[in-house]
Write a structure and sequence with these properties.
The chain has 88 residues and is mainly alpha-helical. The chain has three helices and two strands. It is globular and about 40 Å long. The relative contact order is 0.21.
Length: 88
């Protein structure tokens, strides 16, 4: 697990801002989801785009699966797990 130092929190805030998702519980185009379970792998269509992006850092389903596997994290999209996956 990565320690959430002020530097790392600033990086995470920057990524979150750039992704345009203010919360840990939002899919692409600000659609809410229950982030107390696995990545929803739900395709959202908006503005001619389709995406499975979810969470504060807008992880695509495939990227999420690769990252949690590499980091040894559970498929659980709560805030702390998303933070650790983003740092990985």
């Amino acid at each position: 697990m990565y320690e959430l130092t002020p530097y790392r929190l600033a990086i995470l805030d920057t990524i979150n801002w750039a992704e345009g998702s203010p919360g840990y519980d939002e899919l692409f185009n600000y659609v809410k989801f229950n982030n107390l379970g696995p990545h929803p792998n739900q395709v959202v269509t908006a503005g001619g785009y389709e995406s499975t992006a979810a969470g504060a850092y807008q992880f695509l389903y495939s990227s999420w699966q690769d990252t949690i596997s590499a980091a040894g994290l559970p498929d659980f999209m709560d805030g702390p797990t998303q933070d650790q996956a983003a740092l990985k």
